[in-house]
Amino acid sequence: MSEELERFYQEKKERLQAQGANENIQRQASEFMRESIISGYSYNFSWLGRPIIQYPQDLIALQEIIWETKPRLIVETGVAHGGTAVFFASMLELLGEGGQVLSIDIEIRAHNRPLIERHPLAKRIKLLECGSLDPKAIEEAKKMAEKYGPTMVVLDSNHSHQHVLSELRLYSKLVTPGCYMVVYDGVVEKYPELFSNEARPWGPGDNPLTATRAFLAESSDFEIDWEILNKLLITTAPEGYLRRL
Q: Which residues are CB-neighbours of 4 under 8 A, at least 6 positions away?
């Protein structure tokens, strides 16, 4: 690496460390998160024609991770409109190594399935309709990981503590060393009053962030990538970018 590039990356590292310690920008980011959750900000975007219920900042992080680690299988739990499935498929297409996305959801809605299956990138997407903890889902994910090799996992289905902790314990075994497991919506712990209702029982002490912390307490195979979090500031996955060692 040239001296100029080394200097550039060192300056970037120092900026991110300073940004992570900057209480003012952290506070303003938190205020933006609160207001944007109330306004439904994450529901306003699409990826190659499919609605993608994510923050753009998290998509940039996923792009960087995928390009750097080059997984050939990306397992996601939670499908919704299929935007993230198409996003992952587009990244695998760019990598050009014949990778595949396994998208698992307990209900793939009738108005979404045909649009996903007719998408130009559908050849890179396998839809599996069942619960993410269903043995059928685990077996299929395991079989595909054995077939394709380097594997990344993204968890974004039921957000209760016990469900996510069970997902973490099961799907973490598939993640290739050096690759990532990303846990979405830990933001519930930070703004519980904005999420808790009868239809969605998760809330303070019962959400993906608490599950992630419990998982990390019992596993030495993963670490939080704080550099990504210091970079993003705006994310629905606080402490949720986990790299397998």
A: none
